[in-house]
Amino acid sequence: MQTEVLRALRADAQSWWRYRELRRTGDLDEARRLERQTIRRDIGYLRATLNNPDAYVSCGGGGTILHLGLTTVSLYAPVERFPLASLAIRLGTPLIDCRPVRDIIAFASLPKVTMDGAIDPEPWTSSSRVSLLTYLDATERLGARIVNDPRTDRSN
To answer: Model pTM?
Structure first.
């Protein structure tokens, strides 16, 4: 799996227009240096994802977000076109696919997932913090699709 991850990250880094342009103009050393830097950064994001039990990926009409706690990584594209998020999902990170949700106001009003373990008591507001499992229950009630569900025997 490690080779697959590195291969995917390398291919993603090499596809960036800036690095392709550096290669085209003959600045191979700079292109390689920047590609390695990007790969190291993305490996750091994947490690953070795997080490944080409340990390998750959300995908909606506005793009895809990898939630890592105090850091988020986002792209205005579906999860299928975001290699870093796709790798995180392949490694077991939960995905909340919000594209089927019709009540966007209710979805936006959901409490946030805690990243430091502090959970607010009910009743919850949009600024409250809840566990990832509670958040998954709430999003699923609104019609979201859950992949890599950490709740027992619900994984797709």
So the answer is: 0.85
